[in-house]
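seq:
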Amino acid sequence: MDSRLTPATARVAHESLRGRVEAARYTPGEVAEVVVPLADLLAAPDGARDRQVLLGDGFTVIDREHGFAFGQAAKDGYCGWLRETVLGPPVGPTHWVAAPASHIYRAPRVQAQETASLSLGARVRVTGTSGAFAETPLGFVPSAHLRPIGDWFTDPVDVAHQFLGSPYLWGGNSRAGLDCSGLVQAALLACGWPCPADSDLQLALGQPVDQTGLMRGDLIFWKGHVAMIVDGEMMIHATAHGMTTRLEPTARAIARIAAQGGGPVTACRRP
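struct:
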């Protein structure tokens, strides 16, 4: 079983795995929610970053160890360890950040001190409005930056464009830094389309398409890399080549990646 998608540690497993995974104990898990703007999802307690989760993301806690909680992210099923301090009881988000980035403010006015930065995809619970601001339990967010959950974008390429210039970050999932699969996931989730976290998992999305017939929104894959087609000439991707999210001519990228030892295109998919 893929450990990235298996909610189990050596001690405890989710009850859905009973009969499939051996464990000393099975649990339905504890439903929690991310209460900080951004947190690393780790491969082990205090270990390396695998992915990231955003404010308002749901998380089912399966196990705890030395101040860390192991569990599964609701948005994509990815499993890993979070610091316990980044989790809290679920408050039930009502809106999501539909701008590339936003802030939480102490008061509902533009001159107020900001207390946190939010990335596209973060979720908040709106409890009221004050002028041009939405009130949340953490403070005030510009209403123009929010949409009700369920009010999604329709074009993932348009969403991906909002990340242009964002720095490349291995395992990143936010405007502050993201990798190739993080960009694809953010763009598809913002359109209400389910999407796994890593590029090899994204190979299962949609239907295969021929490289000669690529259309806007199609995904093009190399070993360990994925990009999104913009049109007949261009693609967009978060790439370690230049360490940024950029537009690049597709034919040029194919030739460059091959020349740098990244191999040929391995697949093309239409989500």
